[in-house]
Amino acid sequence: MKRCISSSRRLTAAFFATTVIAISGSVFAQSVDQVLQADQRRLNLAQQSQERINSVVEGTRSLEDQYRAINKEIDGLKVYNRLMRAQVDGQLATLEDIGLSMDQVDVINRQIFPLMERMIDGLDQSIKVDVPFLMEERTGRVSNLKDIMSRSDVSVAEKFRKVMEAYQIENDYGTTIEDYKQSLTLADEGTRAFNMLRIGRIGLYFQSDDTKITGRWNNANRTWEIDNSARNEVRKGLRVARQLVAPELINIPVSAAEGS
User: Quick check: pTM over 0.70?
Assistant: First the structure.
């Protein structure tokens, strides 16, 4: 009987111990789960915090990059503004010079127009008393100058250039030799075309194609004179002027200088 009671007690104690262990294991398992869940929440919170930190860092980097870019652009604008300021100062100085020049334009025009008029009149008179070579071309040039002077669409500078050009052409006549065709009216021969030979301004000669008529301009008498004694020399001069032969000495009569 005692052995049965003892066995029963042992069974009861074992059951109680097993129950306690089971309850303890269940409680421990719940605690572990809670701990794991808490750790997971902490991990989630840490991850979220890190993501926020990363976002802030990226935003900071972006703002820093923008700041650097803006500073670089500002430096470039400072350099550009400095250059533009220098350019504007130069343009203002130029405008001031232009303004002064414009103030003087009217004065210059008042002085240069009478000068050009006198130069054209002087050129016209010079041609009229000169040896009469290329008269149509030369008088036409003077007439053209007079027309240009009255035109408003031609600048003062262009008008002055044209006048100087005409003077230069007239000046060149004194150092050149040339031949050309011209119709002359002679006392015994009537009007016919002749080969003309101009030697600078010292002599103007004519000769027919068959060389039977040769003569020259007498500037003192303002007449054409036949002078066949110079036939060969005039023919030689015409060949030189046409560049058919090399330049050589030509022995021909010339008019005496005025006042001699």
Answer: no
